[in-house]
Specification:
Strand content: under 5%
Largest sheet: none
Number of helices: 7
Order of helices and strands: HHHHHHH
Structural class: mainly alpha
Number of strands: 0
């Protein structure tokens, strides 16, 4: 693979991470996360002639596809429970207005979203695939993948956590 292709994958993954940090919509979150993930799969298979790199890319693709489907399933539950909204603010308002925030459907939705994101971010019970992937890729790709994943995870979680705290404060002020 040529250097321009490598740089295009790096830049596209970075753009996906940037869109993920500013996403307030379920569709934007999913598309930007998949943009980041697909470029990571392609970067893992950068050395085509290396058997370990090919094995790592296939494992990463299969685990990523599974986690994407679980994440999309959780998003579809949220979409249905909120009354057909994709904006996070409107979903929260829809769940609060319809009083479905304590239902088992909301619990299933959040569990599916948590599991899908935990696989994507290789969080602790879902991180078994990570050593196999990192064993098969080059150091530069490992560094970029770790840095990008951790930076985007921290920024995204911090922004959404602050947003949810503000939302919760506004909800209690309304009562």
């Amino acid at each position: 693979m040529a250097i321009p292709e490598f740089l295009i994958f790096i830049l596209t993954a970075t753009v996906g991470g940037m869109f993920l940090c500013g996403a307030n919509d379920l569709v934007t979150i999913f598309v930007s996360l998949e943009c980041l993930s697909l470029c990571s799969y392609l970067l893992c298979s950068y050395t085509k002639r290396d058997i370990r790199s090919n094995e790592a890319a296939i494992k990463y693709l299969l685990i990523g596809g599974t986690s994407s489907s679980i994440l999309a399933y959780g998003f579809s539950w949220l979409y249905g429970l909120s009354g057909g909204e994709t904006n996070i603010q409107k979903i929260t308002n829809g769940l609060l207005n319809a009083e479905t925030y304590n239902s088992s459907g909301t619990f299933i939705a959040f569990i599916c979203i948590l599991v899908g994101l935990a696989f994507k971010l290789s969080l602790v019970p879902f991180h078994q695939w990570t050593p196999d992937i990192y064993e098969g890729v080059r150091f530069v790709i490992k560094f970029f993948h770790n840095f990008n994943k951790k930076l985007n995870r921290n920024i995204y979680i911090n922004i959404k956590f602050i947003f949810s705290l503000k939302l919760k404060q506004n909800f209690y002020k309304m009562k």
